[in-house]
Please model this.
Amino acid sequence: MAIKFNSIDSSVFNANAPEFTNVEKERANIVTCGRLLMQEYGGKANDNMRALRNLSAEYTPQLTAQTGMSYADFNRKTKEKMLLYAAKRYCAVSGEVAPVDYADFMKKQQRFMTQKSFLHLLSGIVRDVISPVLPATMSNAMSWFAETVSVPLGKTYELDVASNDIFVFEDDSWGASRSKPSNYLYSKPLTLNPTLRTAKATIKWYQLVGNDADLGRFFNSFAVGMYSKIMALAMKALVAGTANTNLVPTNLQFTNESKNWVTAAKRVAMANNTSYRGCIAVGDPSALTKALPSGNVNASAVNLDAALATMLGIEWARYGYLGEYMGINLMPLEPALVPGTQNTTLTSLVPEDKIWVMATAGYRPVYVGLEDGGEIQVELSPSQTADMTIDIITSISVDAIPAFASKVAVITA
Model:
């Protein structure tokens, strides 16, 4: 997945921003440096993938030889400043003598790793680094099928879905208007209740302090994990809504044939009072790959080999799917893995046999609610083990529900 940092307010990288008004300058600098490392790692990783597809870069690296500081040097100095700051603040409370520099810290490091106050300071810095990035952990394609809303702390968010009915005019005569059937333009309330979601990971203390641990990668792992969980909730809601014939009636469910694509887009356009060209199709790239001429046209079977060899082949072979099919723009969903399968089955969260045709205007099929004012909770705690590990516990509050207030068609590829 790719985290889009261009949607984040640039003030989060400014140590003089209002959010740091009552924060020590040293801590503010460490937090903003951590955010920059997170941006650099995520931005360059995204551009590496774009380069493989012969696409222009979206991110301009800030840490280069031209700027006078390499990523490796900046990462090392930020790590040292973060650990030294936490050690100094801990010693100010405990009455111990603080390390004068990082070499001195390394000599005394074992006494810090088991101190909860020291680790609590590090937890707070990590939380401050990653918190502004959470709103950007959605991919561009996900924004087409999921709407994100803020839910007041400890409350239920009520989404008032307006009716998709319209005023229907019928033939009439004077004096008979009251006898006409009524169209009901009632709204329907849906509720979002963010629930606590927690992840636990373990790191080795010596790898953090002794090696040049990549903080950019470390911070990004939080955002990737959050993305996977939010994506899992959103896809669960999307799949559940797809299986509900009250939300997606059978006349909006199709098999993958060329004529069905046209029918699906026409019906979605009519049901949502929009134009045919106002429809898009979203899905896993594996599903979009199958959006190719198929079925019968003018009583003759479509010759797929001929189609690929003539007009469709170059674009399909280059990107894996067509940018536009039957007048409908194809929008790939960023892949996301089921957590825990990255080293085993590599199971995708996004169904690889479903394509959703929807209108660009109107309600999104899925609504995601993030608890407003509820900080991301990050807790570092020592483990009494021979390899001196530290447990990291991270929590967020989020919920997702299927809305399908605007009609959506589903094509099984």
